[in-house]
Amino acid sequence: MNKIKSHYLLIILFLLFANRSSAQDSILTHLPLEEAKLASYKMQVTYNKTSHLLFPSPIRYVDLGSDMVIASKADPIGNVLRVKSAVRDFEEETNFSVITEDGKFYNFDVYYKFLSGRAQL
């Protein structure tokens, strides 16, 4: 009877260790960096107008690439971000990133849009 119990115990221990080792293999599996790249969205901003971005989930974190752009969440909504230029006529490109509560990451490349005197449709 003891021999049967020890066999069952050995089988259980073997299954536990075999399961742990295969779980570790799945953690170590990852995409190469070149396959994990995210595409950036292009965005134009102006000094006189505010743009609103709607995300599918509430915003958790916003990182601005420079002080040429300002952004804030539209409370109490939580998934709307207001963005505009903080300075007039900046020439270099900047960026900002957003992480939403569902874990998604969004990156935006931002350019200043010089407004002409004519209306564009």
TrEMBL record:
Domain of life: Bacteria
Signal peptide (residue range): 1-23
Keywords, ordered alphabetically: Signal
Pfam families noted in UniProt: DUF4138 (PF13595)
Name the UniProt record assigns to this protein: DUF4138 domain-containing protein
Organism this protein belongs to: Epilithonimonas ginsengisoli
